[in-house]
Amino acid sequence: MQGEPEVAVCRLAHRPGRDDRMTTHVGLTARALGADRVIYPDNADQSRRTVEDITGRFGGPFEVELVESTSRIVRNWDGSVVHLTMYGERVQDVEEEIRAVRAGDGDADAGDPLLVVVGSEKVSFDIYETADWNVAVTNQPHSEVAGLAVFLDRLFDGRELDREWADAESRVVPMETGKRVVPADEE
Ligand code: SAM
Fold this sequence. Notes:
Blueprint: E1 7-11, H1 20-32, E2 37-41, H2 45-58, E3 63-67, H3 70-75, E4 80-90, H4 91-102, E5 114-118, H5 125-130, E6 133-136, H6 144-156, E7 170-172, E8 181-183
Helix pairs in contact: 1-2, 1-6, 4-6
The structure holds S-adenosylmethionine.
The site of S-adenosylmethionine (SAM) has 17 residues, from strand 4 and helix 6.
């Protein structure tokens, strides 16, 4: 989020056909819940286009990047790396430490960019070794989208729900019943 150290989300792998919706939803969830960027493998161009289309319509800033090697991004990340996995430490046990490192332990100039890594197919063991934290959102198998959503909400302590959006074409008017979308500059 603006004025804070960067949070990027890396989707490690993408299986075209099988993963299309999940890969797109990783990006949409990253955007909606406060991350600054999603990094996709370069065979996920359709997901990139969908996330960029939503960002154009409903606002940003939010970047989508395609890379040749996601594991190289993880290995060379200049900051901290969280790998979300059902085998990891419980999020409720490590969230405070992750927040403190990201905030630079109170030193406003020393914040650490954070890379949040999610898998699709089997994740190779070097990702577990490279990560600063292997984090579980429950030690039960579920989904990268659910794990990412809960983790980001814990990381930002709910502040992402009040995020403001820039350069949107449209905005949704919250209402008890019905659906209303108006031009973003309309009161
Ligand atoms: N079978 C794969 C493996 O052994 O690595 C994992 C498949 S799982 C459907 C896809 C991704 O969802 C995982 O790589 C992980 O990022 C995420 N995930 C699933 N359950 C999770 C949990 N309980 N906590 C955190 N992340 C989870």
